[in-house]
Amino acid sequence: AADTLPAGARLLCLAVADTGPGIAPQDQAGSFAPFGQGRAGRDHRGGAGLGLTIGTQIVAAMQGTVRIARSSANGTMFVATLQVQDHDAA
């Protein structure tokens, strides 16, 4: 929570939504694994299943997290949360 952050730190939340077939609840956990694709992804024949893995690793390298906020037949929304430091403008 924001009230437990170190002095000068803030939470940055980024939301990204796609318009694909969505990710079924039973496929969501495996979606972050390398080459992980749910049934809808395999049936759609799009991508190699690396985008979420790479994006999650980049965010994790910055001590952040990525989660699926919602998913439906009209797409999925992902939220990345990062802790960032305030810097004084020079």
Question: Would you summarize the structure shown here?
Answer:
By secondary structure, this protein is α+β, with helices and mostly antiparallel strands.
Descriptive terms for the model:
90 residues, alpha+beta, 3-stranded antiparallel β-sheet, elongated
Order of helices and strands: EHHEE
What percent of the residues sit in helical stretches (DSSP H or I)? 10-25%
Q: Output the strand order for the largest sheet.
A: 1-3-2
Q: Helix- and strand-based class?
A: alpha+beta
Q: Report the radius of gyration as a whole number of Å.
A: 16 Å
Description:
- The protein is an alpha+beta fold.
- Helix content is 19%, strand content 31%.
- The chain is built from two helices and three strands.
- A three-stranded antiparallel sheet has the order 1-3-2, with helices on one face.
- The longest helix has 11 residues, at 51-61.
- The chain is elongated and about 50 Å long.
- It starts with 8 loop residues before the first strand and ends in a 5-residue tail after the last strand.
- The mean pLDDT is 80.
Mind sketching the topology for me?
Elements: E1 9-17, H1 39-44, H2 51-61, E2 65-72, E3 75-85
Antiparallel strand pairs: 1-3, 2-3
